Amino acid sequence: MNRDTLAAALADERRRFVADHPRCGELAAAGREHMPLGVPMSWMAKWPGAYPVHVAEARGARFVCADGLEHTDLCLGDTGAMTGHSPAATVAAIARQASRGITAMLPTADAAPVAAELTRRFGRGPAPVTQWQFTLSATDANRHLIRYARQVTGRPKVLVFDYCYHGSVDETFATLDPRGNVAARRGNIGAPAPLRDTTVVVPFNDLPALAAALAVGDVAAVLAEPAMTNIGIVLPEEGFHAALRDLTRRHGVVLILDETHTLCVGPGGAVRAWELEPDAVVVGKTIGGGIPAAALGMTAELAARVGAGIDLEDIDVGGIGGTLAGNALSMAAVRATLSEVLTDDAFGPMIALAARWTEGVRVVLDDVGLPWHVTQLGARAEYAFSLAPPRHGAEAAAADDFPLQQYLHLQALNRRVLLTPFHNMALMSPATTAADVDAHTVAFAEAAFTLTT
Questions:
Q1: What is the pTM (predicted TM-score) of this model?
Q2: Strand stretches in 69-208, DSSP E
Q3: Distance CA 215, CA 192 (A)
Q4: Which of these, 40, 43, 67, lies nearest to 53 by C-alpha position?
Q5: Which of 306, 327, 336, 451 has the fewest CB atoms inside 10 Å of its own CB, making it the most exposed?
Q6: Which residues contact 186 (CB under 8 A, 6 or more apart)?
Q7: Residues near 38 by beta carbon (within 8 Å), at least 6 away in sequence
């Protein structure tokens, strides 16, 4: 692949984007007057092009931008809209609840059924996850569980896998430097404490490194995705999860599995599909159908240990919870989403469409001879810029290519197909169709031909 060809192609796509989106450009200019980078949340500035498209309306697996152009959405809010945009059952439940009250810092009748449904999905094994609490984001759920783990173990550190992402949790913005020491990950903004004091980092799939780190005896919790998804998809090797569970039990370490993205594997995420047995589970984004909501689940044994160390008088000042957490509107949205939208039956067609997307990309790569690979994880799939799938996050990071990524994303966007801006992920919803998938395949084939001609 010629880098001059890439630069020229990216310049062409940037000109095309500006010409196609004049109204979005006007809105972006207005936004820059009073918002840094012109957006209400800084990540939105990372979309390719001179500015992000502005959404006028989103329904199902499509959205219309301010310029009146309809797009196929394969990003789906980076899993926040894996339900599809504004699913009817969730919207109806939100409307009913909004008219009855949005938040009161009191439980409603929706809470217990939601907790029971999450137990049905994620509770398995001899010590199932059965005790649930609710937050507004997976970040908060992860943060709370880390604090609980420190409380019950009396240990200071959390172990994460190199190039992980678990939301804006301070302890997780860590990586390994060239000498194998824990260091701040590039771009870590205003880290509050030296990461060597809070965090242990090992490569994913490296069981000897994991065993050695846990043997030191200062780790309270392992926080992990069942498969890495935020540096591209890195799948666990055979036996990895069994060994992870055995090592954490042997060393008295709390095992937290963050299923926020791996819920795409099935209705109970990887925990159910792969028969995993964590001490705690986090699931966020998707379960509210677009309304902010997340959940953290614990085994009865862990919940009892946590409860034994918290006095009722101090339950509101210990760094856990939030005034709006578990609010009436969120719980109504979660109940409707789990019972009527992301049902067990919804996942089969979604996973089949991800397989169709994966095969379309694979055929294109074979036809043009690009030395890349494509990986499927349930209803999600991604391509990446290396011939072999990576074993751990550092290999995935080494294969990344930001200008190439920007070109491919902008080229697809100009053909009215939206991918996530952070890597090359496509996600299927219950509303996604085969035509949506094939639209990406056509655009990707054009881009691959351009890059290799």
A1: 0.97
A2: 70-73, 129-135, 157-161, 174-176, 182-184, 199-202
A3: 27
A4: 67
A5: 451
A6: 175
A7: 28, 29, 31, 32, 45, 51
Q: Which residues make beta-bridge pairs with 159? A: 200, 222
Nearest-angstrom CA–CA distance, 337 and 94: 10
Q: Is 325 helix (H, G, I), strand (E, B) or coil?
A: coil
Cβ 434 vs Cβ 418: under 8 Å: no
Selection from 452, 308, 282, 438 nearest residue 361 by Cα: 438
Helix ranges (DSSP H) in 69-130: 88-100, 111-122
Q: Can you say how many angstroms the Cα of residue 13 is from the centroid of all Cα atoms in its chain?
A: 28
pLDDT tens-place string over residues 398-438: 999 999 999 999 999 999 999 998 889 999 999 999 999 99
The interaxial angle of helices 402-414 and 434-452, nearest 10 deg, is: 130
Measured CA to CA in angstroms, residue 296 lies from 131, 206, 242, 281 at distances of 8, 27, 22, 6
pLDDT tens for 99-144 read: 999 999 999 999 999 999 999 999 988 999 999 999 999 999 999 9
Question: Distance between CA atoms of 288 and 296, rounded to whole angstroms?
Answer: 14
> In a 10 Å sphere around its CB, with 0-12 CB exposed, 13-18 middle and 19+ buried, how is residue 89 labelled?
middle
The H-or-E segment that residue 426 falls in is strand 425-427
* Angle formed by the axes of helices 3-20 and 434-452, nearest 10°: 130
Q: Which residues contact 178 (CB under 8 A, 6 or more apart)?
A: none
